[in-house]
Design a protein that fits this description.
The complex is a heterodimer of chains A (about 425) and B (about 230). Chain A has about 425 residues and is α+β, with helices and mostly antiparallel strands. Chain A folds into 2 domains: about 190 residues, no CATH class; about 180 residues, no CATH class. Helix content of chain A is about 55%, strand content about 20%. Chain A is built from 17 helices and 12 strands. Chain A has a 6-stranded mixed beta barrel, surrounded by 4 helices. Chain A has a two-stranded antiparallel ribbon with strand order 11-12. In chain A, about 40% of the residues are buried. Chain B is an alpha/beta fold. In chain B, about 35% of the residues lie in helices and about 25% in strands. In chain B, helix 3 crosses helix 4. Chain B is globular. The chains are: A alpha+beta (about 425), B alpha/beta (about 230). The interface between A and B is medium-sized, with 27 and 33 residues. The structure holds adenosine-5'-diphosphate and magnesium ion (MG). The site of adenosine-5'-diphosphate (ADP) has 11 residues of chain B, from strand 2 and helix 1.
Chain lengths: ~425, ~230
């Protein structure tokens, strides 16, 4: 009784078409629940991944590369000419960052910036008849500990052992498992230039980033330079920032100033970030598809009601209901389905999240994880509600408009 | 404006044509004046334009030419919303079929126009609907749904609904068409009372010549024209 008139008429219509209404309600709920559940899971994973990257990886890496191929002398001479060069042979360059020490000193002056030099290359590890091809990075432990996560990731041993033990090496957990290597084992290391060293494993780390644990090893910078036969060469500067937001601008300014390719973390992980974009696009299109189906349901119910209740519409208009009063009744019906569907969907979505949270399993993809990492935010509830309610209203709009345009004279005359 | 001197309804050269390859004229050059409180019967053969005239006078339809004045006010040029508002507050329609909303109780049906007008509070609306149903001897049927009532009872509920916002004008299109003779006479008597006791202006379309005799005046239509 206390319900507003339009609302009570709308509710009457919907309860009259109960089964159809329930089906469209279910469609809306499904779309909303799916969105909430899946986006919590996906964003949980994505945010966790990004947090780990920011935590573990250098925020900026300066590489011994330049972004664009160097311009040829003839191109510099005729900047406007249409020049085609064939059979170009690149000059053998001694790779490495020239003036790295100078750069290091300059960057270290900047407050909030920590820099560690590195030389990375390939290495073959031999142990007990097994060969493992790995990546070896020469580091300076006293700088490295301020820049990467390595020291915190050590399962056993210490970073300083690289100083105190000669020919010391730290290896990833995956490598250790693959070759059956344990701490303090002696292994042979063969470099691509043919240097062979007996090295002692002084530490094993686990970053939980699968690729790193299976392929990365660390030794002293000096030792790496010997292994690669590249005395005094540094081919990477790893930079960590107190404020990760500065990564982009800082990388750009380093590149401008020194010419070397500088990648902020977003660029280093662009493959994965690109996958995230695709993931999100897939999720949004799936939800949109579900909602479109739900909208057809809503359109259907309301069209049926308009058809069945043509007489009522005519009499209401003859009584003095305006076009917009009639339209409001039917739009309200869509809105009711949208809102109730959203509320049910919220509940199902919430249940879905809690269910996923209760699952316990091991997963190894980009990263190792235990169960789902779920991101719970009111934003997902708000977005799903907005999508559901807007589309439900739009679906109701078409039949509502038709209802409002019915001519009462045709109806009362036709029935008489 | 002087109330008594003014006609409740005045039609001036009222014409309604349906456009089309063969245009149909529903109402032709009708001039009509009905006094306030007058009880008028509209008669004529089937298809003579009685309903069409009623729709024009009740602002449910718009004339092709000519105009309708209600209580001295020109209605030509009013917007659709303004016309709806006038129908809501000033005009009560009763049709041959009761047209009650089947999912609503009689009480709720009568409340619909009151609540749409929204001049009364919800509890006042309820009281007014109760009083109307009581006055039409439907007190016992308030909570019933239309399909639980007899034809005469339903038509009385429809009349109660037409009276919901206390309109000065009642337009009825063959309201007794589906009723037996005795019930029809009772309903007709009711309309007479609405005019004579309550001062409303009442136009009733009827086929029944005998009932028409009980009205203050008869208007006879043939082919969309008033003959007498
Ligand atoms: N939409 C329409 N198209 C064609 N003819 C119509 C239409 N509506 C009414 N008519 C015709 O107009 C005439 C007047 O109709 P109506 O006003 O209902 O007459 P009455 O109520 O006196 O029976 C009738 O001949 C009817 O057939
Ligand atoms: Mg008729």
């Amino acid at each position: 009784m206390a319900l507003p008139l339009g609302l009570s008429i709308a509710l009457q219509h919907l309860s009259h078409r109960r089964r159809q209404t329930l089906v469209s309600l279910l469609g809306v709920s499904l779309g909303v629940a799916f969105f909430i559940g899946i986006s919590s899971m996906m964003q949980g994973f994505q945010r966790d991944f990004i947090a780990r990257i920011i935590d573990v990886q250098p925020h900026v890496i300066v590489k011994d590369e330049v972004r664009a191929a160097p311009r040829q002398a003839v191109e510099r001479a005729f900047p406007d000419g249409a020049i085609s060069l064939r059979g170009l042979k690149p000059r053998e360059e001694v790779r490495g960052i020239r003036g790295a020490r100078n750069m290091l000193a300059t960057l270290e002056e900047v407050p909030g910036v920590h820099v560690a030099p590195a030389l990375s290359g390939n290495l073959l590890l031999r142990f007990g008849g097994k060969d493992v091809s790995v990546n070896v990075t020469g580091i300076q432990p006293e700088r490295e500990r301020h820049v990467t996560h390595l020291e915190k990731d050590l399962l056993s041993g210490s970073l300083d052992a690289l100083y105190t033990t000669s020919n010391a090496i730290i290896i990833g957990e995956g490598i250790a498992a693959k070759a059956g290597i344990r701490k303090d084992d002696l292994i042979s290391a063969v470099s691509p230039v043919g240097v062979v060293l007996k090295m002692k494993v002084v530490g094993i780390f686990r970053s939980n980033i699968t690729l790193m644990d299976n392929f990365e090893t660390y030794t002293l910078l000096k030792k790496a330079q010997i292994l690669q036969n590249r005395a005094n060469v540094i081919n990477r500067l790893n930079v960590r920032l107190d404020d990760v937001e500065r990564a982009g601008p800082l990388a750009a300014s380093i590149e401008r100033q020194f010419g070397y390719r500088s990648e902020p973390w977003q660029e280093q992980s662009r493959n994965v970030l690109g996958i995230f974009v695709i993931q999100n696009a897939i999720m949004y299109s799936t939800v949109t598809a579900i909602l479109i189906v739900a909208c057809f349901g809503i359109f259907n119910v309301i069209s049926t009601v308009v058809f069945e209740k043509t007489r009522d519409i005519g009499i209401l208009k003859s009584m003095g209901f305006r076009d917009k009063d009639i339209r409001r009744i039917f739009v309200l019906e869509g809105l009711i389905v949208g809102i109730i569907g959203t509320l049910i969907g919220w509940l199902i979505g919430w249940g879905l999240i809690e269910f996923m949270a209760s699952l316990d399993f091991k997963m190894e993809g980009f990263v190792k994880a235990q169960g789902f990492v779920l991101y719970r935010t009111p934003k997902h509830y708000a977005i799903s509600a907005a999508m559901a309610i807007v589309s439900a209203t739009l679906a109701a709009w078409v039949p509502a408009r038709r209802a409002s345009q019915l001519n009462p004279v045709d109806i009362v005359r036709g029935a008489g | 404006m002087a109330g008594d001197a003014m006609n409740a309804i005045e039609a001036r050269r009222l014409t309604r044509e349906l456009p089309g390859p063969v245009p149909v004229t529903l109402v032709r050059d009708v001039d009509l004046k009905v006094n306030r409180g007058e009880f008028v019967a509209v008669t004529g053969p089937s298809g003579s334009g009685k309903s069409s005239l009623l729709y024009l006078l009740g602002l449910l339809d718009v004339p092709t030419s000519g105009s309708v004045l209600l209580h001295g006010h020109e209605t030509a040029g009013l917007s659709a919303d303004d016309m709806a508002q006038l129908r809501l507050a000033r005009i009560g329609f009763v049709f041959q079929f009761h047209f009650l909303l089947p999912e609503f109780t009689c009480q709720a049906n009568v409340e619909i126009p009151i609540r749409r007008l929204a001049a009364l509070s919800d509890s006042q609306a309820r009281k007014r609907a109760e009083a109307l149903l009581d006055s039409l001897e439907l007190a016992d049927h308030r909570r019933k749904y239309p399909d639980q009532l007899s034809g005469g009872q339903r038509q009385r509920v429809a009349i109660a609904r037409a009276l919901a916002n206390d309109p000065p004008l009642i337009l009825a299109d063959e309201p007794t068409g589906n009723l037996d003779t005795r019930t029809a006479a009772l309903v007709f008597e009711l309309f007479r009372k609405l005019a004579h006791d309550q001062g409303r202006t009442v136009l009733v379309v009827t086929h029944d010549a005998e009932l028409a005799q009980t009205a203050d005046r008869r208007i006879h239509l043939v082919d969309g024209r008033i003959i007498s």
